[in-house]
Design a protein that fits this description.
Layout (H helix, E strand, L loop, with lengths): L1 H30 L6 H43 L2
Helix pairs in contact: 1-2
């Protein structure tokens, strides 16, 4: 569960950083200024990765709870049918 959340967070950080760098470069060329690449890290990639990490952890936890309850109910049905 934690490994999947970590990998999802890394992937989202990489993709959002790429998109942030591309948009920063485009905005710099559009306005004829030198782009500040730290904005891509601080204002795009890091918040996106934090949100995806939180949502991924919540989603994985919900799925684990669901699977646990389902297995518990099926075990109860199997015990009752004997």
């Amino acid at each position: 569960m934690l490994l999947l959340t970590f990998l999802l967070t890394l992937l989202s950080f990489a993709v959002s950083l790429l998109l942030g760098i591309m948009s920063t470069v485009m905005a710099g060329r559009l306005h004829d200024i030198h782009p500040d690449m730290t904005r891509a890290y601080r204002h795009v990639a890091l918040p996106v990765a934090a949100v995806v990490a939180a949502l991924g952890l919540i989603g994985a936890t919900i799925l684990e709870i669901h699977n646990f309850r389902q297995a518990k109910a099926l075990a109860g049905i199997a015990r009752a049918s004997r």
